Amino acid sequence: MLQNTGKLAGCTLFITGASRGIGKAIALKAAKDGANIVIAAKTAEPHPKLPGTIYTAAQEVEAVGGKALACVVDIRDERQVGEAVQKAVDRFGGIDILVNNASAISLTGTLETPMKKVDLMLGINLRGTYVTSKLVIPHLLKSRSPHILNLSPPLNLNPVWFKNHTAYTMAKYGMSMCVLGMAEEFRGQIAVNALWPRTAIQTAAMDMLGGDGVGKQCRTADIMADAAYAILSQPKDYTGHFLVDEDILREKGVQDFDQYAVQPGHPLLPDFFLDEAPETLVQQMEQHGATPAFKPPSSSSSAAPPSGGPIESTFDAIRGVINEDVVKSTQGIYQFDLSGEHGGIWFLDLKSGCGSAGQGEPSVKADVVMTMDSSDFSKMFSGKLKPTMAFMMGKLRIKGDMTLAIKLEKLMSRMNKAKL
Fold it and tell me: How far is CA 102 from CA 34, 167, 181, in A?
């Protein structure tokens, strides 16, 4: 771990989304120096699925030596942001550092993304970052060591990072464009930089997106906290950089990165937007059992698979494990639209009677339609690729009830235990 040097002692950090995850990890790292932390987030009451509130985060900050101010803030609301900024100034006398960490994500295609989610991502990622920066900057200009740090990626215009989740990429790149513009606008006055992880980071959001087992492919939020600390310890002329956590820590002399791994020695899941060469990223993702979205399928056909083919064999296995108990616990009708070498339409009824499965569309409207390459379908049901992970990587499009994709993993586990 990167050792604290005390450089942030007495500094006031305004951190959005700091009630959990990376934001809280950065807060705790700075608090160990004796920094003042403004926890600006929405979670005032315990969430049924997500850990922590602004108040529990504040307690943790003070337990390690910092001072905390918990503020209920929806960063889409200019008035709420302004009130929180004023409370911070009144309490601590100013603001030295802004960390724009709050973010929203939906890895869905254009037709599958409701405008409500588009507005949410643009409102939090882009507008929220811009509004918070705008209102904090007047106070940063009075600081001796002013910084803005956005948790956002380099502006990689490779189309593979747009095609499967255009709205999310636009919103996330909006945060990066704030770095690009504000770094130049306030050059010599405020350091403005971006930080992004080399690998997936284990957070509550990642657990929800990736399902059970994704954690062992991740690093902890500590690596982002250490990298942020290294950046925020720099002078204000260190600006306009799009930094990757592992790179900045190597520059600081860190050599052991296994210490940040959730499961040391396990292959790590690469994060989005960092493909130096698409071919290299293809190889990395395939090591995790996925076929990357930008790797063209071998063919595209809606023709029925040949008798005895891999899809038919998979459905034979499915029919062998479904029963009334599976139907009762799932209560969903699936339609699989498969492309590639063994393309075709198949259904899985886990809602009626003892369940059924076969080729063609279900007799009633499906609760969820899953579109993917036939090779990935085979990987899913052989236990090599989880539906939630395939979805996160852009290999699986889901229209309908997302929770049914998670329930499908239980059936796959049952099949693999039966060695079918």
Answer: 23, 17, 19
